[in-house]
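Consider the record:
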Amino acid sequence: MSSRELTRRQMIAALSAIPGAMAFPTVSSAQGRGGGAPRAAAAPGVAPDPQVISDLVAANHILVRKGIIEVQGHISVRHDRDPKRYFLARGISPEIVNTADIMEFDLDSNAIDPTKGQPYLERFIHGEIFKARPEIMSVVHAHTRSVLPFATSDIPLRPVYQLATFLVDTVPVFKNGDNGEVISNAQQGAALTQALGKRGAILLHGHGFVVVGASIQQAVDRCIQLDINAQVLHEILAMGGKPVYLKPSPDAAAGRGGNARGWEAWMREETSR
């Protein structure tokens, strides 16, 4: 590991130890922006399979290593034994997430145990998608550099690569204001979810994207393939060529992603760190 990388990791770890240093505002501090009044914490429920939490921690690290997420971004998973709950790390860099950082939320994105830390402000993305789409088990929000140009231009993001054919057609762009604002409340999260529809991905204007999957493995794989697809499309356009888009059927696209071979390799990298 280079001295530069070590210094960066040390800095992130130091910041995470300072209350609120890397977390977004809580619901109460976001009231002026439509965050709504804080609610009492819900009663603790049934414990999840420990593997679910382990996979969620690993997924945070994998997405960082693969360049999908840097300091900003997050991945969640639905509770495997209570579909009305989900798990998401507290508001810190995904690079340093561990088991103790995972928080539980209800589908209104209220923390079950608020004492665990400040949550991400954009947790409403996750809660509203889980609420509207019971088949979805994992949600990712990221700002991957290769994808950003398609979120802020008239160039469509469409599949040009076989492993990205979970994208059925042009990925829609959701606009939340004129300045790439974050999704800071349930109303905005619900509007984003409506725009997403039954798709596997959506762009956020001037901001980033959201990818969903039927498992953590599928959501992570889809993010990686989306990044590759965007890079290939960049290269086609840079060559002065005209993209010849793929045309996957909606039925086939629904099951795309979740490469078991890839997940095994990424987990081996994770355990060897």
About this structure: The helical segments are 3-16, 50-65, 123-132, 148-151, 186-196, 216-238, 250-253, 260-271.
